Structures are given as structure tokens and as C-alpha cells.
Amino acid sequence: MAKKVIQQVEAEILDYSELSSSERCLVDDAKSAVAGAYAPYSDFHVGSAVLLADGIVVKGSNQENAAYPSGLCAERVAIFSAGANHPNVKIEKLAIAAKPAEAKDFVAASSCGNCRQAMMEYQSRQEETIELLFIRPGNQILKTTVRDLLPFGFDSNSLNK
Ligand code: THU
Q1: Tell me: the pLDDT tens digits for 65-110?
Q2: In a domain, 1, yes or no
Q3: Which of 5, 59, 92, 151 has the CA that lies 20 to 30 A from 11?
Q4: Which of 42, 46, 61 to mutate to test the pocket of ligand 1 (most atoms within 8 A of CB)?
Q5: pTM of the entire structure?
Q6: What is the whole-number distance in angstroms between the Cα of residue 39 and the centre of ligand 1?
Q7: What is the pLDDT of residue 83?
Q8: Which one, of 103, 120, 99, 92, lies nearest residue 46 by Cα?
Q9: Which protein residue has the closest C-alpha to ligand 1 atom 5?
């Protein structure tokens, strides 16, 4: 049987200078959030910053643990913190920056499956798209959305509730 494209994934790669001023601030916040990473086991430092609809920015960074699975990624630290502290404010955008300990520039990271799932929950809850800005080397930004990052995702609609 012939294969068909039934869900398109959209993303664009932009230069930092092409972003809006609020997006540039969010990218800067994600970069500075890297400093809060506690990553003695992987030496892979990740920062994230959530922009809420009221303009507040909530930062997160990866927090590791000697019992490895007890640690948490930067994205979930930030969105869970936003959800806990600003429960009724929509999440507009999330920026993510990653840097191995000795690296000079940021590396092109993407979010793990667990983070994609957690992002999708918040997007479904607020019924509004969350935009994602992944920082890449050389001041490039990959811009996409949670839906594009998790095609065929499972959310509350899947439960028919
Ligand atoms: N990490 C994140 O913070 N975000 C991701 O989406 C991928 C991985 C963290 C988890 C762990 O502390 C380290 O990077 C290496 O996997």
C-alpha cells in the first residue's frame, strides 16, 4: 500500500536577529538559565524559559540525581514550575538552550519524549498552541510548536473524556 503524508511537521530556522524582541529576551533567559543546571553526572547543561501570557518568565534547568531517573529535564522543571505557580496563565512560548560543560557554543538539542508529552498536556489544557524556540549553534533558532514536535501525540482527547 502506498504511504501517504497525513500529518505535516513544520519548523523554521531563523537567525536570532529575526526574532521579535520578546522572543529574543526569552532566548536570552533560556541561555542564562543554563547556569542553574545541576548536571554532575552528564555534564550536559540545559536551560529553559517559559513565557506566560501575562509577560512573566519562568526559568528552569536540568536537575540530576545520583539515582539517575530521579532527575528532571530543564523543560519540565520550567513548565511544572509555571503550572504550579501560575496555574491559570497560558504558556505562550518555551525556549531551550543546551551546552555540554566544556563547549563554547550552544549545541542543537531537542526535547526528550517525556518533555514533549508534558508540554502537550499543557497545550491541550490551555487549548492554545505553545511555540518552541530551540537554540542552535551560531545564534540560530529552530522555531516550531509542541504539536509539530509530537505528531500523533496522546492527550486527554485520546481518552474521550
Ligand atoms: N535533558 C534536558 O534537560 N532536556 C532534554 O530535553 C534532554 C535532556 C537533560 C537531562 C539530563 O540531565 C541531561 O540533559 C542529559 O540527558
Answers
A1: 999 999 999 999 999 999 999 999 999 999 999 999 999 999 998 9
A2: no
A3: 59
A4: 46
A5: 0.96
A6: 9
A7: 97
A8: 99
A9: 111
- The number of beta carbons lying within 10 Å of the beta carbon of residue 106 is 25
Contact predicate 50/83, CB 8 Å: no
Q: Which residues line ligand 1 (CB under 6 A)?
A: 39, 42, 44, 46, 62, 64, 71, 73-75, 111-112, 115
CATH number of the domain to which 105 belongs: 3.40.140.10
Domain count, the chain: 1
Kindly list the catalytic residues. 75
Average confidence score pLDDT of the chain? 96
Task: State which amino acid sits at residue 90.
Answer: K
In this structure, is residue 91 part of a structural domain? yes
pLDDT digits (tens, 9 = 90+) for 24-38: 999 999 999 999 999
Dihedral class, residue 87 (left if φ above 0, else alpha if ψ from -120 to 50, else beta): alpha
Position 160 scores a pLDDT of 80
Kindly give the number of the ligand 1 atom that is closest to the alpha carbon of 46.
3
DSSP H or E segment with residue 148: helix 146-149
Q: Which ligand 1 atom sits closest to the C-alpha of 110?
A: 6
Q: Does the residue 159 lie in any domain?
A: no
| Domain interval for residue 132 | 12-149
